[in-house]
Amino acid sequence: MRGEDIGAHTAPLDRLYATGSAFRIGIGDGGNELGMGRLPAELVGRVVTAGERIRCVVGADALLVGGTSNWAAAALVGALALLRPDLPQLRTLLRPAWSYDLLAAIVRAGAVDGVRRRSTLSVDGLDWPVYAEPLTRVAELVDTGR
Question: Taking a C-beta distance cutoff of 8 angstroms, is the pair 60, 69 a contact?
Fold first, then answer.
């Protein structure tokens, strides 16, 4: 997202993502995520600092964009939970407590907030309480069947 090459710290998932005939869903928030290549470079450049330069060129069949990628992913899981009530584990994934425990575990393992560049209980520069608000809302909507 800053235009820094972090390839030495990540697996080349784009190769796996771009191979085969599976339907590909991209989820992003800053232009640098897999699937964001579905959007024109000039559009990403208008809404993201250095967007034309940092945007991922790998496209997707469908793209979800959110304030944070995780919020967009939660919305997708929420929709699946409503469509598949026979899979209660989807609702578990929507629980803010589950997300908190997961975040705490990955921070303990050494992960850093990409915005703050610190190992802290935050996502994209948002402290846990603020970050958790949309997760809580998605869980509430699913619980009420909306």
Answer: no
What number of other Cβ atoms are within 10 A of residue 104's Cβ? 12
Residue 8 neighbours by CB under 8 Å, 6+ apart: none
Contact 132, 101 (CB under 8 A): no
- In order of 13, 17, 49, 90, the CA distances from 38 in angstroms are 17, 14, 18, 27
pLDDT tens readout for residues 110-134? 999 988 999 999 999 999 999 999 9
48: β partners: none
Q: What is the pTM of this model?
A: 0.87
pLDDT above 90 coverage of the chain, percent: 76
pLDDT at position 44 is 93
**What does the domain layout of the chain look like in residue ranges?**
7-65, 71-143
How does 35-52 read in b/e, with b if 16+ C-beta sit within 10 Å?
Answer: bbbbbeeeebbeebeebe
Higher pLDDT, 118 or 7: 118
Dihedral sign (CA 59, 63, 66, 71): negative
What token pair was written down for 56?
């991922």
